[in-house]
Amino acid sequence: MKNLLKNVSFVILLLKMCFIFGQETSVQKRIIIDVGHGGKDAGAIGINGIQEKNVVLSIANEILKLNNELEKPLDIYLTRYKDTLISLSDRTKLAKALKADLFVSLHCNHSDNPNARGLEVYVANAVSNYSDDSTWFAFQLQDDLNKSLGFESRGVKLANFQVLRETINSCSSILVELGFLSNKDESDYLATSKQNKMLAFLIINSFKKR
Question: Which residues contact 23 (CB under 8 A, 6 or more apart)?
């Protein structure tokens, strides 16, 4: 029953967003922030006990708060607004239904090597009309985060992740790994709300540059 209600709630949200989209006359670009994992899927677990699903939700919520403070807020939607599990296919369906211009999937990394560290940004291992813009934005975001935070950059990489594969032909899309929860320094950094606000600030500034 819980799963049924969860699915119904998602469909209602999807229909509501589609209705809003149909009433809009703005040509402002639409951004979908895919908040990784959620619900029973905690994602990576940090050595300090923090969970990936909570870290990325915290950052996404900070992005929304900052956006609401802008004189001209960006047109931003999240794939989840609380600790719920949304299927990968539903995440990409939302982006397509809302005719997104940019899809950004937020994640945190993990490795058996505790010394692994740094940011990674992925684009789809495929070619489409959106490939160049996806790659350009991936490099821009990676550069902004690297210069401002001092995190090691592991570069922009190609991957066949489902959320990228299913959005590559409908919009620009990237997946960003915001540091390693298996690394003590980065896990401690991502556990701090102040630092998450800084990450959100840098991400929304990158959106504004597009």
Answer: none
**Average pLDDT of the chain?**
90
Locate 93 and state its tokens: 């369906």
Q: How far is CA 152 from CA 30, 133, 209, in A?
A: 30, 23, 22
**Cα(57)–Cα(66) distance, integer angstroms:** 14
Amino acid at 121: V
Return left, alpha or beta for 68; rule: phi > 0 is left, psi -120 to 50 is alpha, else beta.
Answer: alpha
For position 94, what pLDDT does the model report?
A: 97
CATH number among 3.20.20.140, 3.40.630.40, 1.10.443.10, 3.20.20.70, domain 26-209: 3.40.630.40
Q: What letter represents residue 44's amino acid?
A: A
pTM: 0.87
Residue pLDDT, tens place only, 80-136: 999 999 999 999 999 999 999 999 999 999 999 999 999 999 999 999 999 999 999
Pairing between β-strand 30-35 and β-strand 102-109 as defined by DSSP bridges = parallel
Q: Measured between alpha carbons, how far is 14 from 5 in angstroms, rounded to an integer? A: 14
Q: Residue 163 in contact with residue 92, Cβ under 8 Å?
A: yes
Question: At a CB cut-off of 8 Å and minimum separation 6, what does 161 contact?
Answer: 105, 122, 124, 175
What beta strand segments (E) does the chain contain?
Answer: 30-35, 75-78, 102-109, 119-124, 153-159, 172-180
